[in-house]
Amino acid sequence: MPPSSRIESSPLYNKDLAPATAERRTWGTYNFAALWVSMSVNILTYMLAASLIQGGMNWKQAVATVFIGNTIVLIPMLLNSHPGARYGIPFPVLARASFGVLGANFAAVLRALVACGWFGIQTWIGGEAINTLITTLTPGWAKVSHGTAICFLAFWLINLAVILKGIEYIRFLQGISAPVLLAVGLLLLAWAYKSAGGFGPMLSAPSRFVSFPDFLKFLIPALNGTVGFWATVSLNIPDFTRFARSQRQQVIGQALGLPTTMTLYSLIGILVTSATVVIYGTAIWDPVQLLSRFHSPVAVVISLLAILLATLNVNIGANVVSPANDFSNLWPRKINFRTGGVITCFMGIALMPWKLLSNYSTFIFGWLGGYAAFLGPVAGIMICDYFVIRRRVLVVEDLYLRDGVYEYSRGFNWRAVFSLALGAGTALVGLVVPAVRVLYDYSWFVGFAVSFGAYYALMKLQGEKPGVPALEEAS
């Protein structure tokens, strides 16, 4: 039986998880830069930066935190991009090399659940925008009970409709959403400049930290949260780089697109939020709530429509592609991309995004820091396995087959699972033991380092040979 036929008949295969063929490898430098522009220019980037101001930083501290955090996360992003571009395989298939053909579901489901949370958060923001838009056009809507929840469900249905159209529709959205949201940011910046009396007052808001130790207490989890912001995509980036024409093009495109766009758009959120302190006496970190205070209905309507479009784009591109593939990996023969996307939609509601966005503290310390404790270990294991243990050598066909070189023990590499549990557990100890709170504050870094080291040691202990796929163990 030809190799392609062996793969296609495997229960671990479907066309959405299949290696990308040469005909599908059409993404160049521009496409990857545009991908990051479209995903970075979004409301949550604005809110992440604005939350740093609300937490007490001045504008220089906030900009530096965003830039450093995104430069750091670019490193695992590019490392995990390599196997995707080289072998044309998506994230859940790549995870089979380190976790086993069935054990990969541990990594895939963790990543998928985080993406479902982000999907719900973005959808809630879109619902808020629709609610504010309707209230602006029809003031009586403000009296409707549960108006925001109704609008949330409406925007949820819009997202569902786009998902059912398939992955190719995402590229169309990417081309039109980033420019309009950038225009909204510049509109808010112009308003802030005029209302606050120029950049002088906007940039004069001092840091609220009275000493360096106080600043450090906020900086560490803030930096961890900034890294955690894109820790999700740093895992599933092979879902996109599998379509790259070359390694060089995807590396240049991402290096140009991620840190620069995140920092520049964050700067708008930082400046506007700093201005709200001058104008209103308090930091307003939610741009939808800020727009609701505008007196020009035309400006509010145009801005909110732009926010809706951009939120829809980043939600589909960043929060549906990966979990749809991840859920498909659970049962490839029955769950395709669209079915996985539908599961993502329902899980997004179940994770109650309105609670995750209740305040900046819950957003940074609870949500971003919490899931970073799990995704850091997954990144550490996958990077160690691909670059250190296997020296970038994979047997692609066996990634789709039972009883192949990635079978391990009945499909599970328990060394990877143990390393994941050890890394996440070490980071989470900081939640329950105040004396080592720093472990949780640096949850992504701690989890990455512990799991990387544990996985390397365990694989070497079992006599794994670098550059040679692991042989099946006795079950």
Overview features:
globular; Hydantoin permease; 73% helix; mainly alpha; 0% strand
Describe this structure in words.
The structure is a single chain. The chain has 475 residues and is mostly helical. It has one domain (3-461): Hydantoin permease (Orthogonal Bundle), CATH 1.10.4160.10. It is 73% helix and 0% strand. The protein contains 22 helices and no strands. The protein has helices spanning 3-8, 29-40, 43-54, 59-87, 91-99, 104-137, 147-165, 168-196, 199-202, 212-229, 231-236, 238-241, 247-280, 287-291, 297-319, 321-330, 337-350, 353-356, 360-389, 414-432, 437-441, 443-461. α5 (91-99) packs antiparallel against α6 (104-137), α7 packs antiparallel against α17 (337-350) and α20 packs antiparallel against α22 (443-461). The longest helix is centred in the N-terminal third of the chain and has 34 residues, at 104-137. It is globular. The two termini are 27 Å apart. Mean pLDDT is 84; it is low at 470-475.
